Amino acid sequence: MTSYQATLPGSSGRWAALNGTHHRAALNAFLVIVLAHWAEHLVQAYQIWGLGWSRPEARGVLGMPFPWLVSSEWLHYGYAIVMLVGLWMLRPGFVGRSRSWWTAALALQFWHHIEHLLLLLQAQTGRHLFGSPVPTSLLQVVIPRVELHLFYNTVVFVPMVIAMYLHLRPSAAEEELMACSCRQPGAAAQPA
Asked: Which residue ranges traverse the bilayer (predicted)?
């Protein structure tokens, strides 16, 4: 066991496997979930700005056959939690520069989660912020909801992708600390 593995919480079980031998598979599965969510937002944006649909008509891919999905604050909050938990659970597998970027994505997602929690609480209580007729997040006062969530997803996704890129191409010093099998075969170690 490396000195890094010894610092993992519950390093002798599923946690160690998730951030060790199964880290790459877990990252790939997490990335599929993130990209599917991105696709929904991008299709909704295309429906609004590319096809000229009204915002209520623009419901993304799944929202077309299941319109209740778009208005379900439980669904949006659930996804925010999945992202938060995924970023938190996969963080121990990152080291060095990649860990800094992954931590930035985690911190930004924590705020995104707070915004969705506020929306969920308003939907459940019927008490909306700022006298709005619908649940409203804090930044939604200045940025419309579709654009705001495209922004949130972007500012979480960019550091996440940078973290994954750096994680797959570690410096020699970072590679020494890695306890997972994520490094791409044949990739030369990068200078620190």
From this structure: 74-90, 150-168
